[in-house]
Write a structure and sequence with these properties.
Blueprint (H helix, E strand, L loop, with lengths): L4 E10 L14 H5 L5 H19 L10 E14 L8 E13 L5 E12 H15 L13 H11 L2 H6 L5 E5 L6 E8 L3 E6 L4 H7 L4 E6 L7 E5 L9 H18 L1 H4 L8 E2 L17 H20 L3 H10 L3
């Protein structure tokens, strides 16, 4: 008999008093910002950047540019395997939920869940499995069924009763565009998402998220310098309000300026044809301290954690569940 997977959702506020929990994936954007001697200043400056960006985009009926503030919750998803000890639940996914406070009316507007996306199994796929697969190969390739298990786990979570009980809409995840692809500007323009870009070929990340049931579109919002990749399940424009979209843009545009300043804090904007590069030299740094090399090292460590505590011990269970999972 195939075992069932169940999900538990935990939420914690992401503010200047945030301290990462022991089981938080320490490569996540928010955990990186909240460590070290500069942690509180890092967080304070980050939230100020997010609020300023939000108000610049939501400029209507907002003459002083201070009407809105964005509040964040870190959503941690744990997975239990039916019949196993609940204390061995795997911290599967961490995502971010935005909430928008209209300081003029006092209204609290529910934002989008997703935004940032962190996953132990994705760390395993990219930082352990993919590296091992290509170690002695002449050309790059991906293992058979690469990303299939992770995609099914994600779709199982989004269709679960736990997700439906906590969130009204499907998630939207917003990431950097790929430095290995070229993006071409189109004539399509949205008042909030900005100018749409297309590319000739999907990136490995795009294909990976496709297995999670998510499509992708690339937009460069007003006053941004590079397009962002938006991953979504339904209709990105019809399913979400302008304020919901601005909450995601302001949050993730800020994160990318901190983590990939060569692309998102460049001193010149993307042109008609654009290939991002982390080797670009004409960019500005934020005042926020971040160690990118440490993050790459920790991704490998956490991928190995997933392998040791989840992939190997439950390999037979996972293979049976994956084979029987109804898409």
């Amino acid at each position: 008999m195939s075992k069932d997977f169940t999900f538990a959702i935990k939420s914690i506020y992401f503010d200047e008093d945030y301290h990462p929990a022991d089981n938080t994936r320490i490569t996540t954007n928010f955990a990186n910002l909240a460590r070290g001697t500069s942690r509180q200043e890092n967080l304070r400056n980050t939230f100020r950047m997010i609020d300023n960006r939000f108000n610049a985009l939501a400029h209507w009926d907002n003459p002083k540019g201070d009407r809105y503030t964005v509040k964040h919750e870190i959503i941690s998803v744990e997975m239990n395997i039916d019949g196993e000890n609940s204390t061995s639940a795997l911290p599967l996914i961490e995502i971010l939920k935005t909430n928008i406070v209209d300081q003029k009316t006092g209204e609290r507007i529910e934002g989008i869940v997703g935004n940032n996306f962190s996953s132990y199994v994705r760390d395993y796929d990219f930082s352990v499995l993919l590296l091992e697969h290509n170690k002695d190969r002449a050309g790059f390739s991906t293992p058979d069924d690469f990303g299939s298990l992770h995609g099914k786990l994600f779709k199982s979570f989004v269709s679960s009763s736990a997700y439906r009980a906590n969130f009204k809409k499907q998630p939207v995840i917003c990431l950097s565009v790929s430095s290995s692809k070229t993006y071409h500007r189109t004539a399509n323009q949205h008042p909030v998402l900005g100018v749409e870009y297309l590319q000739d070929e999907y990136s490995l990340t795009d294909e990976y998220f496709k297995k999670m049931g998510l499509k992708v579109r690339y937009f460069m919002p007003p006053n941004s310098v590079a397009p962002l990749a938006f991953y979504f399940a339904g209709d990105l424009i019809a399913d979400y309000s302008n304020l919901e979209l601005i909450g995601t843009i302001s949050t993730m545009d800020t994160f990318q300026k901190i983590y990939r300043p060569e692309i998102y804090n460049a001193n010149s904007a993307a042109g008609e044809s654009y290939q991002p590069s982390l080797k670009h030299q004409d960019f500005s740094l934020t005042r926020i301290v971040y160690d990118r090399e440490e993050r790459s090292r920790l991704a490998i460590e956490q991928g190995k954690f997933a392998e040791e505590h989840f992939i190997k011990p439950y390999q037979a269970v996972l293979e049976q569940w994956s084979a029987n999972y109804a898409l």
